[in-house]
Design a protein that fits this description.
Radius of gyration: 13 Å
Strand order of the largest sheet: 1-4-3
Structural class: alpha+beta
């Protein structure tokens, strides 16, 4: 999922992702996540930072 804003606010995006999992009978397969930084934090203001947040999922049993 694309997170827009400060790194400190990523937990809000994870909450949205977790709600999506519940609604679609999915579950995380790992507590580890990946962050892909699309913006250079030294050149972009915090409110406009773009980060892709990912973690592996599978269908719930």
């Amino acid at each position: 999922m694309l997170h827009l804003g400060s790194y400190d606010e990523e937990s809000q995006t994870f909450e949205i992702m977790n709600a999506f999992l519940e609604e679609n009978q999915l579950k995380r397969t790992s507590l580890t996540h990946r962050e892909i930084y699309l913006s250079e934090f030294r050149k972009v203001e915090k409110a406009k930072l773009k980060t892709v947040l990912r973690y592996p999922v599978k269908k719930s049993d």
